[in-house]
Each structure stands twice: as C-alpha cells, then as structure tokens.
Give the backbone structure.
Amino acid sequence: QVQLVESGGGLVQPGGSLTLSCAASGSIVRLNAVGWYRQAPGKQRGSVARITSGGGINYADSVKGRFTISRDNAKNTVYLQMISLKPEDTAVYYCNADISSISGGAYRVQNYWGQGTQVTVSS
C-alpha cells in the first residue's frame, strides 16, 4: 500500500525558515509530479509549488523567491524549503503526488494526498 507522509512543520517566528518533507513509501515504481498545497483556516486549499518528474518547477506568486521545491528520487522524497516566512504563510501544508506503483500484480498510476503538516508563523 502506498503512503504519502509530510513532516517538518512547526511554529516559527516571522522571518524564520522551515523545510517540509514529503516521503512516499510502499510498492512504488516511480514518484511522478508532486505538488505542495496549503489551506489556512476559512480559506480554500491552494497550490504553493509543483515539481514534475523531469524537474520542471512552478510556484505560486506569493511564495516566489522565498520557497524552493526539490526532490530526491532515490529517497522518493520531495522537499519544500521555506525562508523569510510571513504570518500569512500560516496554514496546513499538504503534499499531493502522482505515484506509479504495483498493486495486486497490476501497474497503476494514482493520485495521493498526505495527511498535512501544520506551519504556524507567529511572534
């Protein structure tokens, strides 16, 4: 069974930094495109950053120049490095990935969500 688990969230002061990790485990053949999303209280979930299997990257305008997405294919892990954090970055951050796997002898490509990790930026 494939799982996607985020980690690295926490409480940080404005101007601080955090690095989130999104690790996929299970009968994985390939971690394809992976995106980070966030949802603040009372707001819709929105895209933060995305990286394709070929390394193509895009960011939301609100995080350009402050957030960096990267991947380690050997570890089936994607990272989100966040610097110069602002109170408006406070949200639950979710990882979303298209994962190729073997399940019941069959090759599948499915979309998965992680459980989320809380990031709070406050003094």
Observations:
- The mean pLDDT is 96.
- DSSP finds no helices and eleven strands in the chain.
